[in-house]
Amino acid sequence: MYDFLADGYRYRKLSVELKKKYGERVQRLPLNAGFTCPNRENGKPGCFFCDETGSGFTTFAGITIKEQIQLMKERYRKKGIKKFIAYFQNYTNTYAPLEILEQTYVQALDEDVVQLDIATRPDCINEEILEMLKRISQRYNISVSLDMGLQTANYHTLVKINRGHTLAEYINAVLMVKKFGFEIVSHVILNLPGDNMLDVIESAKILSALRVDGVKIHSLYIVEGSMFGEMYKRNQLEICSLETYVDRVVRFLENLSPRITIHRLVADPPTTGTLFGNWGKSKLEIVNMIERKLEDDDTYQGKRAKVI
Ligand code: SF4
């Protein structure tokens, strides 16, 4: 019996795992360090679902990382939260000279920040950066986690959505990060146009085999200013139904190793500029539908996992 089942859950929930790790509620603070992305600069269109915010929600402009942290900490302290994760979210947060990266990460650290999360891409991580992160982790006694999107194991879809990396390159980057002992969190979008249930299940198996530590499951949303946005307006995009999405999430979880922590079950579309998002439902409504289906099907994370 898996520990999360004994706790009354059908999947390994992030909030529960963080509480076990840090002994209390921990809040993630999304930061915008003003970096760019090699897949978007010099007129490149970027991943087809990405807009000019670099797939992040943080809009802080012209204020330092320290100021961003202080602003958000004050807001959450009123709710009684005392520990925080500094999350470099927008764009590619390892895409800058080494000294700049180090100075930027260190700015986010203070006595209340217990973890550094850095979102990046497989082609923007190397041993030099990982060595520097190791030094920071040891010097400041802080956990480091890398967020790296795979989106889908279907390497044909990766080309079609202009990810700018292949499946093999993703695997190589994950193995490099694991060698340094950092946590790695993968992102998947389970309803990319052209993907089917086979791709969803294979994505779960690949991430399980790679021993990633966490997965963020997203539903595709379409934003103004993205390539998908243009296609959507021209009626060139087929998006699966909500019922199909819920079914895919349940099958993904069944085939995913029970060791892996689930950071989210559905995307959180931005409040402005969204052309299509979550079938007009709230995030909570979709999470409830997924949890209900897990119960109705009497299934759970890892039930059918062959790669544990
Ligand atoms: S890697 Fe991230 S920031 Fe870069 S184009 Fe893709 S989604 Fe946008």
TrEMBL record:
Q: Which residues form the Radical SAM core domain?
A: 21-259
Record's keyword terms, sorted: 4Fe-4S, Iron, Iron-sulfur, Metal-binding, S-adenosyl-L-methionine
Which cofactor is recorded for it?
A: [4Fe-4S] cluster
Q: Name one Pfam family in it.
A: Radical_SAM_C
Provide the leader sequence positions.
none
Please give the Gene Ontology molecular function terms for this protein: 4 iron, 4 sulfur cluster binding; catalytic activity; metal ion binding
Q: What is this protein called?
A: Radical SAM protein
